[in-house]
Specification:
Blueprint: H1 12-16, E1 25-31, E2 34-39, E3 64-69, E4 71-72, E5 79-84, E6 88-90, H2 99-110, H3 140-159, H4 168-186, H5 192-204, E7 212-215, E8 217-219, E9 221-224, E10 228-232, E11 235-239, E12 251-254, E13 257-258, H6 259-268, H7 282-288, E14 306-309, E15 312-315, E16 319-322, H8 323-333, E17 341-346, E18 350-355, H9 363-375, E19 384-388, H10 397-408, H11 410-416, E20 424-428, H12 431-434, H13 464-471, E21 476-478, E22 500-505, H14 512-520, E23 527-530, E24 539-546, E25 552-562, E26 576-577, H15 585-597
Parallel strand pairs: 18-19, 19-22, 22-23, 23-26
Antiparallel strand pairs: 1-2, 2-4, 3-5, 6-8, 7-25, 9-16, 10-11, 12-13, 12-14, 14-15, 17-18, 20-21, 20-25, 24-25
Helix pairs in contact: 3-4, 3-5, 4-5, 9-10, 10-11, 10-14
Protein name: Tail specific protease domain-containing protein
GO molecular function: serine-type peptidase activity
Organism: Xanthomonas citri pv. vignicola
Length: 599
Amino acid sequence: MKTSCARRRRGLDRMRRNKRGAPHAYCVQASAGSVCCAQQPTRSTTGHSSGRPRTLAQGEEPQGMQPKRLACRLLRPVYLFQLRRQDMTVTIGGLSHTPQRQRRFQRAMGASLLSITLLAAASCPAADQAPPTPSTPLQGWAAMADKDVDFSLQWFKDQSILAVYPDPAAFEATMAKARKQADADIQQVTSFEGYRQTLAHFFSTFNDAHAYVWMQLQAKAYQWPGFLARYQGGRFVVAGSDGSVADGSEISACDGQPMSAWSERIALYEHMIPENIIPGLESTRARTAPIMFRYRKSPFLKRWEHCTIDGRNVSLNWKSLAQDELTKVMSTLKPDLGKDVAITPFGDNGAWVRLGNFSPENKQQSDQFAALYKAAPSLRDKSVIVFDVRGNEGGPYEWFMGVLRSLYGADYTNYYARERLKISAVYRLTEASVDNSTFSHGSPGADAPADPPPDGIPYDENSKLSQAAMARGDRVLHAPVNAEKIPKPKRQPINPVHARVVVLTDYDCESACIGFVDELKQFPGVLQVGTETFVDSRTGSPITAMLPSGNGGIGVPYMTRDGRPRNDNVPQKPDIEFGGNINDTAAVQEWLMKILKKG
């Protein structure tokens, strides 16, 4: 086994290689000894993924739960239910957010490995259904929330590493707290929004980016006051305005509470793919800002009446906004930086190295890495090398270690890049985590991405150690420190890179992207600029399942990383912080050029 989910060449990471729009396999456990598999829709000839949100035609009646049959590999078929209502759309593989967030959702859907039999649920109640009371049997959305929470707790118990290691009693207490909180929330659920936020609130209790929920459903329309918000330079500012309020105006408070406080409140109910917000961080504010003024009637979050904008009290005029229009506005707030890996000139004698991913999904993307590896030695005598990892959501460590070794050489890299080698990975042993047959091995054919370059010797690549441990009755498998057996040179090598090396980060650098920064900052003279990164805990490798309602799915981590130097939910913070719009590449480059000229 490898020391992180991002480094495993089987399971989730092989599924991440699937070409966007190509079939993604996921499996459902129908019964003991019966595993059924299905594929997500392929990209349509119009250029749009047929798995993207589908809007019901005008006048189309809601049809309750519509079963989609899954082809069973062994025994009886099971059903994946899709909910169709007039006020929402069915989503498989996409959400009404930025393209980066859509890709994250698509990977979460494609990563489903095992689940239980999906149960039929009753057609949804009307939106004005009376709230249930403790003495009234739960119905509709509340009943679905209750069943989905029950299933999620059982999935934690059956699959999560934290249920058995390192402190099962403490984790049992956390699960009890989450259940009690959900019980209180469920009593207020009468709509999809309440259902969705109840599940997000439940998962927020675990405070772990590797424990999450996602939805296949989304609303067809929202309300907004004519503008959204962006977080930059420590301020919440107006963005995407229809002209009613000037873009760039500072929003300091709403209904008498500072925006930072509202951000923390919203985070509790949005711990969900694609935002997956962790409270108490700069990234909390950055990730909540775009959705602060996107509203659906909620039992937990109020619609603000007035806000303080540029020191003035502004009454908010809420109006309807279709989901597709919201998507357009959101894309102006956060343009897609892309997943390319490429070198472009920077200044007179510098190189801008865009690293948009560490998880190639097709041959073109893995070829881009191969080209970078070949060209990297020619960059050593540049004046500056900027690694731009904004929006990089991670992937197998081998891809970024290939970048470091191609630039710095193997000896220099192996001397300094040893943060990941201090980790002793601990894996939960379950049939789902050990059985290779349930894993997708990437897109077949000529468009499949190449394998990453090796990073030492893979640990338990064929799961023989895991299977032997399970046969002994062991519940976990401990990998040794430096399981890859990468030796450290006895003497400090000479640095072959004469260029100044800078890494540019943003709030969406996550998972293995943070691991890249962990390693790169061990190299003498490397400078981190931009904003702080996102965070992760020591857990990893989420193993996912569809919810009994069929409305979405969940993921829980089945491994943890003992000995990782960076603590749980701690970001990598920049040496020099950028106070503008971190997504504005031209502005960032102009600012960075001035910084570098100052020395």
